[in-house]
Amino acid sequence: MPVYPTPDESSNGYLPAGSVLQEPTGFDVALPEGTNPEPLQPEPSVWNAAFRQNNLLAGIFRPTKQFEHVEGYNPYADKNEIHGYERWGSSFADSQSPEETAWIKNQIDEENENRRVLSEAGAEGTLASIAAGVIDPVTIASMFIPGAQGGLLARVGSQVAIGAAGTALSEVALNNQQHTRTLGESAAHITAGAMFSGIFASAGSLISPAVRSAATREMADALENVGTTNAINRGMDSLPDGGSVGAMQIRQATLDDLTIDGGKAADVALKAGGYMTPISRVISSPSRNARITALELAENNFALRGNQRGFETPVAAETRVRGWRREEAAVVVTNKQAYAKFKADGGDLNYTRFREEVGDAMRNGDIHGNAAVQDAARALRQVVDRVKVAQQDLGLLPPDAELAALGQTSYFPRVYRVGKIVEERDKFRDLLVNWWSRGASTMSREDAEIAADATINKIVGAKIPQDFMNVFTVKVPGSSRQRTLNLPDKMMRDYLESDANYVLQRHIREAAPDIELTRVFGHRNLESQLKAIQDEYDELMRARPLDQAKLAKARENDIRDITAMRDRLVGTYGMPDDPSSFFVRAGRAMRNVNFVTKLGGMTVSAIPDLARGVMVNGFSKTMKGYGALISKSPAFAANKSEMKKMGVMVETVLNSRSRLMADLVDSSTRTNAAEAGLDRVTDVFGKLTLMGQYNDINKAINGMVTADSILSGSATASRVAKLGISPATAARINDQFRKYGEVLDGWHIGNFEKWDDGYAAGVFQSAVLKDTNNIIITPGIGDTPLWASSPIGRTVFQFRSFTTASYNRATIGGLSEGTAQFYYGTAFQIALGALTYALKQTANGKEVDWSPQKLALEGIDRSGILGPLMEYNNMAEKATGGAFGLGSLLGTGTQSRYASRGFIGSALGPTFGLLDTVTDVTAGVLNGDAGDRVLHSVRTLLPGNNLFWIAPMINQVDPGMK
């Protein structure tokens, strides 16, 4: 479905500009002859608008019009036909006549008018929308569905499930009725329906009296301050004075300052599960320099003792690298918009060929015969130049004069089609030899052949395709001279990737780590930092001779962990010597297959994410954020723009979090069309899960809360320091907000794009980005075991990165901060985990065990709060047939998350489980035993078979589910 650019203004082409008649001066003034007087138009009704937008009955009773089919009619043939309605261009796809197109336009106008009326009505509009939803027939019907009996958790879980299901059904129908309703709005309304149905109704009973009292005070304080519009002075003025006096640098911190805060609870959690991951090991190192380097390198959520004393946690290079995703998203969106224009103008290329034309144009001075292609190339030039200039400023890329010598009319990163070069090695070799053995500075043919082989070997074996200097220059044998691969792109066009999306996205992903490592550490290899760690250990060994063996082991571990995290950021850690080997490529393909066959319900599984904001920012602030979304506050619209520019809200475009959690991120280049096609299938499937939209909504809301707490000064000094903001920088951010910020509906919007203090803007963006990645758990370079980065490790550990990341960022991070909201937020997250269990069981047609111990255990398992500890329990239960583990101890059986997995799949990962399933199916077919079990196994091999909005229908005909 094409994405149409939003026009600057909307016009239906019927109304003339200005007024052709003089305004009457009284009720009885006659209009000019021949013109019928118009009756006084009534003011639009807020309640009618709410009913039309949020109640199914409005659409049901709207008469359906029939239109006469016009042969050969295409609404896109004439660009003026849908001018002003490009944003909803897909709504006209089935239009078969000009009259039907005009009718669709009228519907869109009505829906937009309803939105305007509700938005301008403020609180009345919000109240009317809620009321219209409450009297929706599906909502009323859901009220008569009996909830579960028994314990409190069972009752709450069932009510939330009923509310979510009812709202979801209503939203499906409303999306079919309305042209302008978005998936994001539907997801938000479903979330709100679930929360309103169960959580709000029972929140007071879910928490202890002490916590209930604290929460009540928190809400009372929030209500008391709701009218305050200039709260920025309150928190910022309480910080120490900025400038050189009071500004403390992390380099001055002691080992105690660099120790995780939180007392005994955090220490126990760190010892219980933190040993598995590199960042949690290094943060316990006896080396002060090792801890500082790890904090500067890897994003984390640890609260340090030094944060209480004014030491800010440094902005990690990893967070800076993640900020470059906005450029990556800009590439994708630019090409989508350009392609929509291309098709509207009558273009006949598919999307892939269009992107290849854009890439070719970028190699040739951004010039192309088609205006849409040329416009896309010129727009993307800004992204390429941004990366290029950053590399050149740091000495990572030659100046433009040297780049021009490579034989390109304009700079476009070279990414080789490795598979084609391997298949046609002799042909490509002859191309290089013939080029180097002719001209003014020719080589002998023998030397040219040696140089060509060396070049091909570097291209095929390069771990990072963008390793510019290594791939493009070779040394001639017996000479000190080097030869540059300056063969013009047009001569080796068949051996180069031209897809602008693929080339530029990969270029950004691989250039960004080099840029940020060099900015933070002075060199991408961290040479001086590693030497400082070595020297510090030498001093420790001299001072503590009895501990030399222990310190030597600690030094070895620190160097290993830090270099591993560095290489993970670059994308080379654990990569085999031959990334193009069959087994490596097969493993990568199998992980993609696992993703599209097993993660269709990942969005439902992510329901506990809703509690993360409460765990970090508290109940009232988080609910205020969701309220801004539901009420369509202008502050939320302004915030969305801010979050996109920060690189926070890019999941719908890139699906980066989903790919990280599914262990699909990998730096090796694709080698053939089949693998490229599988990548596209994976991307499409990721969008069908709606996980990107769900992640973006949650990240936008929590980013809004974080930004507001920084700009308003409501965040504590220690929390601001944890996010990387020193007292001096906080004062600079305060100053910039005073100049350029604004307060909308009580929310502080920074408008950081206008700030004249680039450093303050950068730190502010990094703080918000870091916090959203910690709230909506996004695994990082320090959050998974090192063995999980090897080819076999990736396969065995697939789908498990979230467990260790959640333990690091949510559990240890929350305990180290030690706030009240972490504890009651954890209870909330466990409740949502229990809800997820109930929803999954119901969707699969299985009985829900409403016993309190079962709900508690399932809630803990699905919340991720115990991380790898529950993984160990689940594997033990599977291995012993349920005879050993928490389920056996409490009499609840094995956990439902592992119910469909065999022992091989639970122990060795989904790939081995997939092979086990294929073997089972094959044996059944060959033996003529294609019974219900085999048919169910075949179903599990189908892409998208368990998408949460398709699976219930498939379950009706799946004999294995009966």
TrEMBL record:
- Region Disordered: start and end of each range? 1-21
Q: Please, which domain of life does this record's source organism belong to?
A: Bacteria
Instruction: Please state what the protein is called.
Output: Uncharacterized protein
